[in-house]
Design brief:
Length: about 280
């Protein structure tokens, strides 16, 4: 049996890969078996990856909202688009959660030209220049030209003092963060030049997926009990993380829903951030 990817390419269906992705939702082995059995009866040759995802999502949600929320992380990151503005906000919030002060969309003068830095973050004597590469395409890959280009930008802003958050520091490191995949050449180039690359599945033990699952820094778009318009309204109000709703439930008063629905959303949010996964 074959599965049709977003690009139209047909690839062999791998049951073990599906089981693994289901288990990464936090579902128990018995629950994974149950979901797999329900999905198996609806599979057919040439089924699209989107339909397969929707089947898995539906059955995981019937088990527990938080399973479906974790399973939907990749889509939830794409939902921070379409331009990637909120992806940059989310990346900044991730660094803030790790103790950094961070700000988005900064113009700075390099040795040769000016640069717009997506996220500037500082902690102690560190000053990080962070490039965010957002992609809407499910199977998108970042080619080697991107880390090459970014490295040249980091070189141009090196050895210059910049003032952020009342501190005057030189850029200590650059980070390239993407919700997409990296090509083999991108990884080779990054590793050779000791670049900080963070992608959906890279580095293997500390990828974007693994990092979010372990520290609970899920975007608000993960919540399955929220509609698309409500997610957009919350993002506009700077409610970017699921943790924001847990810490300040008053955010939910901004959307027109019943008290019962608010309770359901809050329960899902608490369950999602309070039960980290090990990768």
């Amino acid at each position: 049996m074959h599965v049709k990817k977003h690009s139209g390419e047909l690839v062999p269906f791998r049951p073990d890969s599906l089981r693994h992705s289901l288990s990464r939702s936090g579902a128990s082995p018995d629950e994974v078996d149950g979901v797999f059995e329900r999905i198996k009866d609806k599979l057919y040759d040439g089924i699209s990856t989107r339909e397969l995802y929707e089947l898995a999502f539906e059955y995981l949600k019937s088990c527990r909202d938080t399973y479906a929320a974790r399973y939907s992380l990749k889509k939830a990151l794409r939902d921070l688009g379409p331009e990637g503005f909120y992806f940059e906000k989310w990346v900044a919030r991730m660094f803030q959660e790790d103790g950094y002060q961070a700000v988005t969309g900064q113009i700075i003068q390099g040795h040769a030209v000016t640069h717009e830095i997506d996220v500037v973050a500082t902690k102690g004597q560190e000053l990080l220049a962070i490039e965010c590469k957002f992609r809407n395409d499910v199977d998108a890959k970042i080619s080697v030209t991107t880390p090459m280009y970014f490295m040249s930008r980091v070189v141009d802003i090196s050895d210059i003092k910049y003032t952020f958050f009342d501190k005057s520091l030189k850029v200590s490191a650059g980070w390239l963060v993407t919700n997409a995949y990296l090509t083999t050449d991108s990884i080779k180039f990054g590793e050779y030049h000791k670049m900080n690359l963070l992608a959906w599945d890279y580095p293997r033990e500390a990828s974007l997926k693994a990092r979010v699952d372990s520290n609970g820094q899920y975007p608000i778009t993960c919540l399955t009990s929220l509609g698309a318009q409500d997610k957009a309204r919350l993002l506009k109000a700077q409610c970017v993380l699921v943790k924001d709703v847990v810490r300040n439930p008053k955010f939910l008063q901004m959307i027109e829903i019943s008290n019962e629905k608010r309770k359901q959303i809050l329960e899902e949010a608490i369950g999602l951030v309070n039960s980290p996964l090990e990768h």
